[in-house]
Inverse folding.
């Protein structure tokens, strides 16, 4: 065999770099550096925003409840109302004195000034929930966010003919109406003023649009009708964490009792 020299392929020589090409490379490098810097800045901003959002949610969904529960408990303590009587030491009855239901005409107080706390509300179905203050008005800044449950101005007062209509938060600020969906027909709702207990019973629940304000009419759902009965209405936002709709609880008056006569049976253990 004849020897054949191998073919050697050589890479083409790179053309010498010109000053212009070097400047172009430097421009590209600087552009990349600026882009990397911008991405880093945007990333840091997004992380910061995420931390701030998390902190806001923690404040809104947790800390406002902590502060709200503390503030509302203090409001109830500061009412300094007379305690319902306990049995005499010589009495054979054990436990608190049970108030005898009265179904004659109940006492009805006048509407107080705005933001005045004039009543409390307790719902036995909500085991573990504290006694909540009820104050005049339903704006957030001066009532719902700081005082608890609000009374729609112009609606009936406790025990009055017409509709005793209340509003409360379902989330945040101690969320006094957080558990409205648990209520069932027949459940008691107990309202107290300084001297009187008023016991209502749940008759229905419904979800409505915010524009359906007839739910707090003197006769719920019948605007313009003249009331002859005593109603209660609880209103709150629906669904949870949204104000798209309203969850409504309606009830009617059952009985009343003077605080000096004892405590409603519905508030006692085993009721």
């Amino acid at each position: 065999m004849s020897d054949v020299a191998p073919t050697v392929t050589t890479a083409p020589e790179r053309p010498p770099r010109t000053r212009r090409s070097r400047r172009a490379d430097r421009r590209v490098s600087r552009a990349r550096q600026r882009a990397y810097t911008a991405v880093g800045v945007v990333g840091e901003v997004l992380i910061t925003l995420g931390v701030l959002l998390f902190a806001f949610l923690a404040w809104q969904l947790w800390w406002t409840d902590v502060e709200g529960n503390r503030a509302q408990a203090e409001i109830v303590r500061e009412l300094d109302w007379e305690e319902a009587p306990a049995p005499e030491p010589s009495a054979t009855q054990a436990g608190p004195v049970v108030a005898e239901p009265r179904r004659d005409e109940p006492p009805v107080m006048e509407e107080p000034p705005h933001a005045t706390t004039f009543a409390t509300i307790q719902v036995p179905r909500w085991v573990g929930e504290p006694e909540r203050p009820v104050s005049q008005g339903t704006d957030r800044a001066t009532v719902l966010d700081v005082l608890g449950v609000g009374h729609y101005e112009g609606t009936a007062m406790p025990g009055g003919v017409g509709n005793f209509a209340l509003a409360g938060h379902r989330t945040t600020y101690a969320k006094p109406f957080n558990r409205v969906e648990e209520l069932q027909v027949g459940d008691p709702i107990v309202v107290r003023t300084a001297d009187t207990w008023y016991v209502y019973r749940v008759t229905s629940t419904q979800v409505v649009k915010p524009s359906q304000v007839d739910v707090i009419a003197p006769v719920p759902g019948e605007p313009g009708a003249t009331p002859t009965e005593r109603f209660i209405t609880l209103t709150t936002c629906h669904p949870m964490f949204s104000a798209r709709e309203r969850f409504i609880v309606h009830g009617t008056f059952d009985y009343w009792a003077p605080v000096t006569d004892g405590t409603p049976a519905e508030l006692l253990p085993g009721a």
